[in-house]
Design goal:
The protein has 95 residues and is an alpha+beta fold. 33% of the residues lie in helices and 35% in strands. The chain has two helices and three strands; from the N terminus they run αβββα. The chain has a three-stranded antiparallel beta sheet. Strand 2 and strand 3 form a beta hairpin. The longest helix is centred in the C-terminal third of the chain and has 18 residues.
C-alpha cells in the first residue's frame, strides 16, 4: 500500500496528474483515458482516481469525464478530470 501511495503521489507531484496538486495537502492520483465507441471511433473518456490528505482528514475521489468540448487530441485525465477531482478534494478537506 505504501508503494502504491508513493507512486500515486509521484504522478501528482511530477507526472501526468499535476493539475491535482493542492497546496498544503498530500495528493496521489492516477490519470487515464478510455477508448469509446466501436473501434475507438468516438471521443475517449478521461478519468482520474485520487486521494488527498491534510490536517488529519482524508478523501478519495474518482472522476470520469464522458463528454466535453475538448478536441479528441486534448482529452486526458490530467487535462479534464484532475481539475474536477482537485476541486472536490479541496472542498472536502476544507470542511
Amino acid at each position: 500500500a505504501e508503494q502504491l501511495q508513493s507512486a500515486m503521489q509521484t504522478v501528482v507531484e511530477d507526472g501526468t496528474g499535476t493539475n491535482a496538486q493542492i497546496t498544503g495537502a498530500t495528493v496521489g492520483g492516477k490519470t487515464g483515458t478510455a477508448q469509446h465507441g466501436e473501434k475507438n471511433s468516438k471521443t475517449p473518456y478521461a478519468w482520474f482516481t485520487s486521494y488527498g490528505k491534510a490536517d488529519g482528514k482524508e478523501v478519495a475521489v474518482a472522476v470520469v469525464v464522458e463528454q466535453s468540448n475538448a478536441a479528441r487530441s486534448e482529452v486526458s485525465g490530467n487535462g479534464l478530470a484532475a481539475p474536477v477531482a482537485k476541486a472536490m478534494m479541496e472542498a472536502a478537506l476544507k470542511n
